[in-house]
Design a protein that fits this description.
about 425 residues, alpha/beta, Rossmann fold, 4-stranded antiparallel beta sheet, 16 helices, 16 strands, disordered N terminus, binds adenosine-5'-diphosphate, binds magnesium ion
């Protein structure tokens, strides 16, 4: 979620919130064949063209060789067009769908071959699921509907009531427990569904297009609510959607599926910046990149950094060697002291200054690594140095050159196109 952005390794990995390095769900080569016997399916999967072999035998390959791992506290989005295998994969995680091949580990235990009683315990205690079309019981109160998951788990009545009320409170329906579903709006009814899952309080939540049937404004409200709850709960969530913007808003990482296979698995900004193929490019073509990409995504090494103790004449020469009109001055810890320009250095040489102190200037725009490109792009090209990225301690992390901003906002490039040079000029 954007509030707990999954930091890619590198200069931006300073966030302490968000996913932790503890794998909760791991899928290893999961495949699902529909419509064939186990033996037929195994034979078809071993063929050179498994999808073709499955189809030739009269079956359908719903998911093929899907591997991923989800970290504790992560919102892991599975995205793809309708029919791409998202639900097939999600339902293998709690074995509503039996995998045809592959392994699935939940909190370290292989659930692929769990006996029925242990599987039931897993579904009760560890994994719950929210469906797109979950149904409320029309003649039961909102509270009883919210408590439903607890009832099927055998929780005692008083505790059910308490936990259901607490969950309703969290989704903003604290005063509606005694109402019947038809007395609520569509959006509120959806919140009851969310409350039902929250009341159970599972460590892992599976959500299969829970908001897809909602109209856009209510949908956005629900996304906001989920993000807000997630900041408080840090739950591990596998979230299926066919909507890229929803995926970008909610997902720490997004796994893109096509025809039952994984095409790409990366953070939202990474996918937007470097779509793996034309299918993904098409998906991301109409996303508002400026609202997805951050300074960290476009970070480049600064062309030149200088120290306060440098002699102005030397600094001026290095500017010339680098064809730069200005440069950053940093202290020994990498903290940004200011910038110097060629004009100010010429003046310092004329004054016969011994170091850069008198030439320092603060004519630069500093942004944080997680600032959105859309919020600072108008600053690019205004100064002698590019938009300047600093961390909380004031250390210079790098720059975002104007050319990099412009190329990142233009059309999606497949990953094999010419990369942006590591060091680009403003
Ligand atoms: N029970 C089933 N029997 C046969 N085919 C199925 C079954 N469930 C899903 N499929 C097929 O598998 C493919 C992937 O379906 P699904 O996982 O539901 O896709 P998504 O959730 O991405 O829309 C689709 O082509 C679908 O028709
Ligand atoms: Mg589906």
């Amino acid at each position: 979620m954007s509030a707990t952005t999954y930091a890619a390794p590198g200069p931006a990995a300073t966030s302490t919130r968000g996913p932790q390095r503890e794998t909760v769900v791991a899928a290893e080569g999961l495949s699902k064949v529909y419509g064939l016997s186990d033996r037929q399916a195994a034979k078809a999967l071993a063929a050179a063209d498994p999808a073709g072999a499955v189809a030739a035998a009269g079956g359908y390959l719903g998911a093929h060789d899907v591997s991923f791992s989800v970290q504790r506290g992560e919102v892991f989005v599975i995205m793809g067009l309708s029919g791409s295998g998202k639900s097939t994969v999600l339902r293998m995680v709690n074995r509503l769908n039996e995998p045809t091949a592959g392994r699935l580990l939940v909190e370290g235990q292989d659930v692929t071959r769990l006996p029925a009683d242990r599987l039931r315990a897993l579904r009760n205690d560890t994994i719950s699921m929210v469906f797109q079309h979950f149904s409320l019981f029309p003649h039961r109160t909102v509270r009883d509907n919210a408590a439903y998951g607890l009832k099927v788990r055998g929780v005692a009545r008083a505790e059910r009531r308490e936990r259901a009320d607490a969950a309703l409170e969290r989704v903003g329906l604290g005063d509606r427990g005694d109402k019947l579903p038809h007395e609520l709006s569509g959006g509120m009814r959806q919140r009851v569904g969310l409350a039902r899952a929250l009341a159970v309080d599972p460590p892992v939540l599976l959500m299969d297009e829970p908001f897809s049937a909602l109209d856009p404004l209510i949908r956005r409200d629900m996304q906001d609510l989920l993000m807000q709850l997630q900041v408080e709960d840090g739950r591990t969530i596998l979230f299926v959607t066919h909507d890229l913007n929803e995926a970008m808003r909610l997902g720490d990482r997004v796994m893109v599926m096509r025809q039952g296979r994984v095409v790409q698995c990366a953070s939202g900004p990474e996918i937007v910046a470097h779509p793996a193929d034309d299918y993904v490019s098409e998906f991301v073509a109409d996303v508002d990149r400026a609202r997805v990409l951050t300074a960290a995504d476009l970070l480049r090494a600064p062309l030149l950094t200088l120290s306060r103790g440098d002699r102005p004449a030397d600094a001026l020469r290095r500017l010339g060697d680098n064809e730069a009109n200005g440069a950053f001055v940093v202290d020994d810890d990498g903290r940004l002291l200011g910038v110097v320009t060629d004009a100010r250095l010429v003046e310092a040489v004329r004054r016969e200054a011994g170091d850069l102190t008198g030439a320092l200037w603060d004519d630069y725009h500093a942004v944080a690594p997680d600032d959105l490109v859309g919020d600072f792009m108008h600053l690019a090209g205004r100064q002698v140095v590019p938009v300047t990225v600093v961390d909380d301690a004031g250390r210079l992390l790098g720059v975002v050159p104007r050319a990099t901003i412009l190329s990142s906002l233009s059309h999606a490039r497949p990953a094999d196109a010419a990369p942006v040079p590591e060091v680009a000029r403003a």
